[in-house]
Structure formats: structure tokens, C-alpha cells
Design goal:
The protein has helices at residues 3-17, 30-39, 45-58, 62-66, 70-77, 83-100, 109-113, 120-129, 140-148, 157-167, 173-186, 201-204, 207-216. The chain has 217 residues and is mainly α.
């Protein structure tokens, strides 16, 4: 089976399991999505969703956020971890949005990735889910499952992103990255997983991968 054939079969399963996956981060608009994705670095979506109501009640737009003290933001987002860097980035990018982008989140990868605390994955999520631009954000789940399923060698997230874009239809990228995340959380955990009994791993994972992961468990 070629990678393209494997990807087609995987996509069919994911479409049945998660036909209309929603964005797991609560948000109202591109700005609140941007902040929420930034907060989600090394943090669960559930914890981010528990913190953002208090933050957005204080400031839900760049102008208001730019006027908050970094220490104030830090005290609110502390449960998300990395609060010193994240709070500085949130206030800093809000000031840049007001100063350089008319108070709006820019609709380009280049402009987004120029903002403090915004890397390629964060920019990809915003472009995909806020603006509908085809992108394939690669988080921990996407990275490990692409390797587990033999769709990428998984040396790094950049390689994984290129490999996934090569085997899945461009018009489906925005849905697929969410479907893979949900499948990874619900049915395909990193450890203690019976690959042979899995709806996808059972036929997509190579014997070498199954033996390797059985040793790690």
C-alpha cells in the first residue's frame, strides 16, 4: 500500500469518527483564538479554556489587552504554565496589532509569525481556523500519529507537515488536523495503546513500529 492509498483509507475512517470536528479552544474571534493558541503551548486545552474567561473579561480585543500590565496578565494565566513569557508575548503582540495592523489580526503567515510568541504552528491554526486558509498545524498528536501510521518518518515537525500535505487533499487539511488530534486523544494514546487492536494502527502501523512501541510501554 502506498502512502497516498494509506492516507485515503485513514481519512475515510477519520471522516466517519469525527465528521465535523470543532476547535477545542473556546474563542470568539481571530484575536481570542490567537491568544488561546499561544496559551496552549505545553498546556492542555481544558486548562486554557478554564483560564481565558477571566482574561477575556478583562480584555478581549488588542486595544484593551495592550493596556493591561504584564503582571496582571501573568497572574491570570499562571495555571497555563510559562506565564512570564506568555504574558509578555500577549501584551506585546497586542501592542503591535494596534500599532501596525489597525487592531486586527493579520491574515498572513509572515505577519503572524513576526508577532511575539507566535510560531509556525500557532500561525497555522489561526490561518486555518480563523481565516479558512489551508494549513496543516502539527501538534504533538499529529506528529506522533503521522510517524505511527507510516505517513512520515517524523524526524521533526517541519518534515511531518510537508509529508502530510503531500498525501492529503489541500481542501481537507483544516479538518484533518483536528480529526487527527481528536482521534489521538480519544482512541490512540501515546502509551499503553494496543496498536494491533486500533482501527487505524492495526493495519497502518508497520510490524517494526508495533514492536518498537511495545518495548516503550
Amino acid at each position: 500500500m502506498t502512502r497516498a492509498e494509506k492516507a485515503h483509507r485513514i481519512q475515510a475512517i477519520l471522516d466517519r469518527r469525527f465528521p465535523a470536528p470543532g476547535i477545542p479552544l473556546d474563542h470568539r474571534d481571530p484575536f481570542t483564538l490567537l491568544v488561546s493558541v499561544l496559551l496552549s503551548a505545553q498546556c492542555t486545552d481544558a486548562r486554557v479554556n478554564g483560564v481565558t474567561p477571566a482574561l477575556f473579561s478583562r480584555a478581549s480585543a488588542p486595544e484593551a489587552m495592550s493596556k493591561l500590565r504584564v503582571e496582571t496578565v501573568r497572574s491570570i494565566i499562571r495555571p497555563c504554565g510559562l506565564s512570564p513569557a506568555k504574558s509578555k508575548a500577549i501584551v506585546g503582540l497586542s501592542k503591535i496589532l494596534c500599532r501596525e495592523h489597525g487592531g486586527a489580526v493579520p491574515r498572513s503567515f509572515e505577519a503572524l509569525e513576526a508577532l511575539p510568541g507566535v510560531g509556525h504552528k500557532t500561525a497555522s491554526v489561526v490561518m486555518a481556523q480563523a481565516f479558512g486558509v489551508p494549513a496543516f498545524p502539527v501538534d504533538t498528536h499529529v506528529h506522533r500519529l503521522a510517524a505511527r501510521w507510516g505517513l512520515s518518518r517524523g524526524q521533526n515537525v517541519e518534515r511531518t507537515e510537508r509529508d502530510l500535505k503531500a498525501v492529503f487533499p489541500r481542501e481537507d487539511w483544516n479538518r484533518l488536523h483536528l480529526q487527527i488530534i481528536y482521534f489521538g486523544r480519544a482512541e490512540c494514546p501515546a502509551r499503553g495503546h494496543d496498536l494491533e487492536a486500533c482501527a487505524i494502527c492495526g493495519w497502518a502501523a508497520t510490524r517494526k513500529r508495533i514492536l518498537l512501541e511495545s518495548r516503550r510501554s
